[in-house]
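Session log. Operator J.P. requested a structure for one protein chain; no other inputs attached. Running the standard single-chain path with token output.
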Amino acid sequence: MNEYVKPNLILPVSLHDARLSSIDFDNDNIIFIIEDGILAIKGDKTEHTGKTRIFFPKVDFDFCRVYCTGKDNYRQKWDIRDFAAHMRNNRVIIDIVDETYGYNQAKFSCGMYMNEDWYDCEIEIYHFGLMKYVWDDLIDNNLTNI
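Structure written below.
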């Protein structure tokens, strides 16, 4: 009998509870901008970083979507570029709740607040390059327990 045991991937960074400020583009790259930073994990301690940029390289835009569902249970599908423009032109707050990675994909479960209404959102990014997290100096150098 053949067997494969998949290792549990534990990243040294977490986007849980991060607030997505904007989504930018540079050729075939998607860039998440998180002004308030993310959590950097060191063992059982975390540090809150400064402004963070997350790069998704070699994106296939045909498979990058944002899905938002409001209280009416209507699920709206957006092209990620159209959604990013909508974020820039409106008061949109997006809090990342969960993140999932695998098979050239990054998926984010989010809560979105727009025009005094709350939406459940999913951001799906299909990319062929290695993601890169870049952040400014730490906001709080004190480590806290998770």
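Operator note: The CA atoms of residues 30 and 56 lie 5 Å apart.
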